[in-house]
Write a structure and sequence with these properties.
It contains 6 helices and 5 strands. By secondary structure, it is of the alpha+beta class. The protein has 2 domains: about 35 residues, no CATH class; about 110 residues, Beta-Lactamase (2-Layer Sandwich). The protein has a 5-stranded antiparallel β-sheet. The protein is globular and about 40 Å long. It binds zinc ion (ZN). The site of zinc ion (ZN) has 8 residues, from helix 1.
Length: about 150
């Protein structure tokens, strides 16, 4: 019998046996622990992550943009750093459900936030899990994991 879907982590796709935490995010504890450590990684380590990682400040300026996100979006990371994510790179995210959420997140002391979102890429819509992790420099790491039709390797 298949395990109930709520037990399957939306990040690693595995059933950890411990359920997911916090519940609305459907991310298992071991993935959460890994995601919390992302802001402390070096730029090189972030580039080797199998999921997208973008660092944004409160205005949406892109401070870092890793290889996996570049591949997902079909963009060269070197060309998007310094640009405005919401205005110049991913206008589909310039909505309350993403931009509004991020602005609120950066200005709060909230823990990680995770939600489902649909990116409108040139190749078509892609459903992703977005997780915001705060850093110690008034920015947020935006982690992007594809769901469904385009799984990460
Ligand atoms: Zn997991």
């Amino acid at each position: 019998m298949n395990p109930p879907p709520a037990r399957v982590c939306h990040w690693c796709g595995k059933d950890s046996g411990f359920g997911t935490w916090p519940l609305p995010s459907h991310i298992c504890k071991s993935c959460y622990a890994e995601l919390l450590g992302v802001p402390a990684l070096t730029r090189e380590e972030i580039d080797t992550l199998p999921y997208g990682a973008i660092e944004l400040d409160a205005t949406g300026s892109i401070l870092s943009y890793n290889q996996a996100e570049g591949e997902l979006a079909g963009l060269d990371p070197a060309r998007v750093i310094g640009k405005n994510f919401f205005k110049q790179v991913a206008p589909c995210t310039d909505v309350k459900a993403f931009h509004g959420r991020l602005a609120e997140f950066i200005h709060s002391d909230a823990g990680p936030q995770s939600f489902a979102f649909i990116f409108q890429f040139p190749g078509g819509p892609v459903e992703v899990n977005i997780t915001f992790i705060s850093t110690d420099r008034e920015t947020a790491m935006v982690l992007v994991h594809t769901l469904g039709s385009k799984p990460m390797p």
